[in-house]
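tl;dr need the bound structure. longer version: we got a ligand (S-adenosylmethionine) that a collaborator sent over and nobodys looked at where it sits. i said id run it. heres the input, straight from their email, havent touched it
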Amino acid sequence: MTVRVAPPTEVLRKEVQHRYTEVATKPDQTFHFHHGWPMAEILGYAMDRVDAMPLQAVESFAGVGNPFSLGSIQPGETVLDVGSGAGFDCFIAGQAVGPKGKVIGVDMTEAMLEKARGTAQQMGLEQVEFRHGFIEELPVPDASIDVAISNGVINLCPDKYKAFEEVFRTLKAGGRLYLADIVVHKPVPDAAKANVDLWTA
Ligand SMILES: C[S@@+](CC[C@H](N)C(=O)[O-])C[C@H]1O[C@@H](n2cnc3c(N)ncnc32)[C@H](O)[C@@H]1O
């Protein structure tokens, strides 16, 4: 018999949405993780490009790495950002794919989507689109994506196998995955798995 240790998926999603609504709407608050412009600098993003973006494109950035350090993105390609948040990586990808390419950001938190859509409009990036959805049921057709990126998101998903299955379903043959996330190198104790605060961290 399998004993479920993690809180139910609906509970975790609600908590994650609550946490990231705060990151979207109150980015000046202190969180237990670095975010925004200082985190982009720590992670080695090209700061001349970051400085050229409007404040709202950067202030709610909550990634843990730099997916663009893992490979290139070519003009005309289709990019999927899995858990796109306020859209920071989508705007960088949007500039890389250019007007003939496409970037699709998927996120489950309305406040993040609303902010990301407003910024894309402000930046004139018509090739960048944001869709509401869950990573475990991506609203994206099979074999339609050249590059999937994700930054600090899969660690928040209780069903990681399903998340990866979905990402690979959307990739074209030969498609690439540039993934930045948190990895723990030893077994996570059950008490930690049951702690909602640690899940949303
Ligand atoms: C740590 S933030 C990272 C956001 C963005 N990648 C960035 O670098 O700024 C995590 C984001 O993933 C989203 N998220 C977490 N679990 C999700 C799921 N199962 N389906 C869709 N979005 C999810 C949250 O709503 C939040 O916006």
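gonna send this back to them w/ a short note. Residues 143 and 172 are 4 Å apart (CA to CA).
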